[in-house]
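During the no-cost extension, the postdoctoral fellow (Dr. R.K.) reprocessed legacy sequence entries with the updated structure-token encoder. One reprocessed record is reproduced below for audit purposes.
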Amino acid sequence: MTTTNATMKQEVRDLLKSIETGESGPASIIDSHKYIQHNLGVKDGLAGFGELLAQLPKGSARVNTVRVFQDGDFVFAHTDYDFFGPKIGFDIFRFEQGKIVEHWDNLQEKPGSPNPSGHSMTDGPTAAEELEKTETNKALVRSFVDDILVNGKMDKLTGYFDGDKYVQHNPQIADGLSGLGAALKAMAAKGITMKYDRIHRVLGEGSFVLVVSEGTFAGKPSSFYDLFRVANGRIAEHWDTIETISPRETWKNANGKF
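Re-encoded structure tokens follow.
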């Protein structure tokens, strides 16, 4: 079965929107025999997905998928949710023979106000450019996360940016390398540590690259999803979600977060 990139992206949009509309049709894209769930609060398989939706108060969900990208068999989406409360989330779906067979996500509570530079967690460009540079941009972003966030090689930091031109969507951090530096300094003063231990996945389409990493934030095991926009070989923009990984005894499936 041949499935175009545009079709896969639309199928993901429709599936996510069905959380709001209650339509059952879009869920047919899920392979009920193979579906592997990595959201640790949801039981495995298609039945687990259905059970979660059944718990939603009728008419309460809102889903606005802001951007969707595709990398091979993977489609990843960035969505503004009201789903048991306002949240911003990244979802990754793996396709096999035209059907969705695996799902990962990372959700963070949506803040009530913009960040210090006036940005929300989802605004900004939505269309991928530099499509011919996908692999180059993925390699650049992987190196950035590995050098700076995993290994703390701060002497390499400025080489990844065009001066102080850097648009930041993290709710606590202002634009620019100066904003990032000020935020890290403020966190350190409060004794809040953020440590990236390993990169699990790097997905990209053109100018947009998503990195899935594992580490700790404020002493708690955490999952980091960082979306970067690359322009002319430099990192130009950043969106993210940070989610605490719940204790293993509370997991509703045995597939792990990653």
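Residues 5-113 form a domain with the Nuclear Transport Factor 2; Chain: A, fold (CATH 3.10.450.50). The chain has a mean pLDDT of 94. The remaining legacy entries will be reprocessed before the final report is submitted.
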